[in-house]
Q: What sequence folds into this?
């Protein structure tokens, strides 16, 4: 039985495309973060209780991986809401992609550019900023006609 006040929308291809790409990126970052943490072999290298310098090196290296894992898990929560067509998830995904595009542009001008990351982020941005996607998430009101506003 349908709830009377809730309309069901068909998920557009752009939502599936953007969500799938973002899911693949989040899964890669989880794999990368775990791989980096597990590859240290902490006990064999003598990090623990051996020297303060080595312990400090472990802490300085580990915080990057813990941040990567935490942000990747947060991305999975956002994607769960995105696939369930929640408005808050659209806002967070657009914010996430915007930050990633700014970081990509900074690395393009000041460091080695990652062109694959640029392509992925721009593809996700164009997918989620389409009119029908915005209408489904309640960001923009669906128009009755398809005429341009100009």
A:
């Amino acid at each position: 039985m349908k709830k009377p006040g809730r309309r069901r929308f068909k998920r557009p291809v752009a939502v599936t495309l953007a969500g799938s790409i973002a899911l693949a990126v989040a899964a890669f970052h989880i794999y990368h973060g775990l791989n980096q943490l597990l590859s240290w072999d902490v006990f064999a290298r003598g990090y623990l209780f051996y020297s303060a310098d080595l312990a400090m090196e472990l802490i300085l290296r580990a915080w990057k991986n813990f941040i990567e894992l935490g942000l990747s898990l947060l991305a999975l929560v956002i994607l769960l809401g995105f696939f369930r067509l929640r408005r808050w998830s659209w806002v967070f995904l657009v914010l996430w992609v915007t930050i990633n595009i700014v970081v990509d542009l900074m690395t393009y001008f000041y460091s080695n550019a990652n062109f694959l990351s640029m392509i992925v982020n721009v593809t996700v941005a164009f997918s989620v900023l389409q009119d029908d996607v915005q209408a489904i998430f309640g960001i923009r009101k669906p128009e009755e006609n398809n005429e341009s506003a100009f």
